[in-house]
Amino acid sequence: MPELPEVESIKRILNDCLVGKKIGGIKFFYTGMLGGFSADDFAGQVRGRQILEIRRRGKYLHFCLDRDKILEVHLRMTGAFYFFPEGRPVDKYIRAIFFLKGGGELHFRDIRKFGTFRLWDREILDELNKRRLGPDPLENTCDFRLFMGILKRKPKSRLKAFLLDQKNLAGMGNIYTDEALFRAGLSPMCRVGALGTSDQVNLWQAIGDVLREGIEYGGVSVSSFENPYGHRGDFQDRLKVYRREKEPCPRCGHEICRRVIAGRGTYFCPACQLDRKVSGYN
After folding, report:
1. Do residues 280 and 196 lie in contact, with contact meaning Cβ atoms separated by under 8 Å?
2. Is 69 assigned a catalytic role?
């Protein structure tokens, strides 16, 4: 599933390709992602609207259209956008094509069919996001003081589950959570309430560093991820623990292990990622 860095990379490219263009029409090859809308109703609500900006909120892409309408897209596991200055033949996994006035097409491809499209009025979506999503760790309004406050609300949560919960921080997923915990030297099974101040600082720094580095290298392409130009990311070459089971830890040399934690395959070094102990939480 594309996580924050992959979605951020997509957002930046789409802003270069789409801002200022108008949607001439949409052709749907699959409508299951429309949340009950018919293809005609959905296309009718966006046809003729200008794309003002593409934003990102956690793992969500927001196509900000004129008249305060927002098309929200969640790519889920295999969703991807591809931009073409001219038309291209479609394969069996293309689920929708946006035709842009003046030329150009935006193709939505989704092998697993888990991606979702939703249309919102701006004010309604803003209120919804306050309830369903925590702060974005790369936003200027999200700082260490805010992060400490979130940690204090979930002392019994284990770190892996805490970071995967989008109501705590928006955008973290399995890959970047494992990598951030490794950089911070903390076990994914450690309780939030067991963290000392230095642990909290290290974790906050690690989260920011791994996300920014992921963006710098175009995201992770361990499976199907490609950006809208059809290019793969390079950050998989810099992963320290994810999918490196039985390889030597790059920090201490101990064998990296894999366990299912919080319902997800989790990679970590049991020797140098410490599980802090505190009475009542372990």
Report:
1. no
2. no
Q: Which helix (H) or strand (E) holds 12?
A: helix 4-18
pLDDT value, residue 278: 55
Amino acid at 71: L
131-166 residue pLDDT tens = 999 999 999 999 999 999 999 999 999 999 999 999
Question: 3-class SS at 275?
Answer: coil
279 pLDDT band (50/70/90 cuts)? Answer: very low
Edge-to-edge order in the sheet of strand 94-100: 23-28, 94-100, 105-110, 79-84
Query: Cα-Cα-Cα-Cα dihedral of 250, 251, 253, 257, to 10°?
Result: -70
Other CB atoms within 10 Å distance of the CB of residue 125:
19
pLDDT digits (tens, 9 = 90+) for 180-218: 999 999 999 999 999 999 999 999 999 999 999 999 999
Which H/E stretch holds residue 146? helix 144-153
Is 8 considered catalytic here? no
Paired tokens of 240: 């320290």
Exactly one of 250, 264, 270, 276 is catalytic; which is it?
264
**What's this model's pTM, rounded to 2 decimal places?**
0.95
Which position among 3, 6, 179, 226 bears the catalytic label? Answer: 3
b/e sequence 74-86, b meaning 16+ C-beta within 10 Å: bbbebbbbbbbee
How far apart are the C-alpha atoms of 232 and 19, rounded to whole Å?
23
The yes-or-no answer on residue 232 being catalytic is no
User: Angle, nearest 10°, between helix axes 197-216 and 4-18?
Assistant: 40
Alpha carbon distance 17, 166 (integer Å):
29
